[in-house]
Amino acid sequence: MSTTFFDPRSVPVSSVDAHLPAIPASVLQASALTQRFAQPLADWKPEIHGEPRFTNRAPAEAAVLIPLVVRAQGLQVLLTERSRNLSSHSGQISFPGGKIDPEDASPIHAALREAEEEIGLHANHITVIGSLPIYVTGSAFIVTPVVALVAEQYHVTPNPHEVADVFEVPLDFLMNPAHHRRHTTLWDGKQREWLSMPYYDPLQQTERYIWGATAGMLRNFYRFLSVDLDVYLGL
User: Fold this and answer.
1) CA-CA distance, 178 to 146, in Å (whole number)?
2) pLDDT tens string 57-98
3) Per DSSP, what are the bridge partners of residue 166?
């Protein structure tokens, strides 16, 4: 769904998932997440497998990095605002990532390469801890989300041709369904449904409108952390 033709902010909120529990702070620690990915407690299926296609082009394998910056105040999700001159998903909030090239050894390699090419995030500052199920975008990208911890002293140099801005959002904000809003509308003759997770950035004093595939992958991350939570916490 291209923002060139569609403004997601114009669609009213149909519901908010405030009835669902937030992921406890104890689970959102670097060590706890590392353990969670190393020893999944149960089989699970993602809530959102993908989006209705709105393009006829051939599907393409892709990978994104979900970078979790380790800070004293809690993990922060590093996100980008895509340049508005891009042909796909211009101006949207996204994870660093892109197509898997033939020379990439794996989706992890592709995610790390793309993160360095897009925002200058070097692999020396990254520790991969796992991945989430494949997510298929409406633009026909078959995406593997790679989850990683990022050292606090990381440095970025965004590629201005691809990235307009780089910023952080607290992971606990995104893992609280009280901030997960649902939208439904008719677009191009079909019913479209998606999530949004708008975040007010106090540093830049602006709203970061997280929606679409990025919000969908974050929702699957929430569902992954919700599986057998009582057992995991020993309750």
Assistant:
1) 25
2) 889 999 999 999 999 999 999 999 987 664 455 568 999 999
3) 80
Mutual angle of helices 30-38 and 212-226, in 10-degree steps: 80
**Strand boundaries in 36-162, DSSP class E:** 60-69, 76-82, 93-94, 97-99, 126-131, 135-136, 141-150
Quote the pTM value. Answer: 0.92
- β-strand 141-150 against 60-69: which pairing, if any? parallel
Q: What distance in Å separates the CA atoms of residue 41 and residue 37, rounded to the nearest whole number?
A: 9
Ramachandran assignment for 228, one of left (phi > 0), alpha (psi -120 to 50 degrees), beta (any other):
left
Helix, strand, or coil here: 206?
A: strand
Give the separation between CA 101 and CA 112, rounded to whole angstroms. Answer: 12
Q: Quick check: 118 and 32 in contact, CB under 8 A?
A: no
The distance of Cα 74 from the centroid of its chain, to the nearest Å, equals: 17
The region, left, alpha or beta by phi > 0 then psi within -120 to 50, assigned to residue 120 is left
Instruction: Give the whole-angstrom CA distance, residue 230 versus residue 180.
Output: 22
Residue matched to tokens 């369904």 = 177
Specify whether the backbone of 234 is left (phi greater than 0), alpha (psi in -120 to 50) or beta: left
Residues 197-218 have pLDDT tens digits of 999 999 889 999 999 999 999 9
Residues 6+ apart with CB under 8 A from 31: none
